[in-house]
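Practice problem 4.
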């Protein structure tokens, strides 16, 4: 079993009957969702809240009942992937472009678990490019502004055109190498007009499940 599968499947153990569960996006939580699909076939009763069109498609193909985030009072537990996680369980997310819905769902959740392979654990965030979701109008101006701030921006592309998120936005990836003050950076990005959201998830998880060669490792927030 690969490390992503180990982490993804282990996290499904935290789901209890009757829960409303946020279903993240990506290649690691894919294994969680598959496990949930099997459990649902065997009688587990949950409602899923999807974080992307791709997760909706996957969950539907597995027979997992989905509900809109607007129709739930609270989400008991969300399980999602991450691109980098530091020792304080701050993370970078959005490598798959789903950061906006993922953050909305995470903020509505009583508990958040991230499933990762060991390579995602870092001392300092920043090697992974930080995704910034922006509205298309004025995106080039924001891009040039980020360039002037020496943030090495790249507009994410797909098939020679800007990548478009599920909400119709673009993503500018910032190549920062090391984020020394994630809180300050998040506040600054939040203040920019045209920026919809960014991939810094500060204090983002209550627990992470890391898939390792000796089995899954569980790390809880201190
Ligand atoms: O936008 C995508 C999400 O934030 C993913 O959860 C993240 O990129 C990790 O994905 P993966 O498990 O495929 O590495």
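Answer key:
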């Amino acid at each position: 079993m690969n490390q992503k599968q180990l982490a993804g499947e282990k996290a499904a153990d935290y789901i209890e009957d009757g829960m409303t569960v946020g279903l993240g996006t990506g290649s690691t939580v894919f294994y969680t969702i598959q496990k949930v699909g099997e459990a649902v076939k065997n009688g587990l009763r949950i409602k899923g809240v999807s974080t992307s069109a791709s997760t909706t498609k996957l969950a539907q193909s597995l027979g997992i009942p989905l509900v809109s985030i607007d129709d739930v009072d609270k989400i008991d537990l969300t399980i999602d992937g991450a691109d980098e996680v530091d020792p304080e369980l701050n993370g970078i997310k959005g490598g798959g472009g789903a950061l906006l819905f993922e953050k909305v769902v995470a903020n509505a959740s009583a508990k958040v678990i991230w499933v990762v392979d060991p390579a995602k654990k870092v001392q300092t965030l920043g090697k992974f490019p930080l995704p910034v979701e922006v509205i298309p109008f004025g995106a080039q101006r924001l891009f040039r502004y980020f360039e002037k701030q020496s943030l090495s921006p790249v507009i994410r592309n797909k098939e020679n055109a800007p990548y478009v998120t599920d909400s119709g936005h673009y993503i500018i990836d910032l190549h920062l190498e090391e984020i020394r003050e994630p809180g300050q950076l998040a506040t600054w990005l939040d203040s920019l007009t045209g920026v919809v959201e960014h991939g810094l998830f500060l204090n983002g998880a209550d627990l992470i499940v890391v898939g390792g060669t000796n089995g899954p490792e569980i790390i809880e927030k201190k």
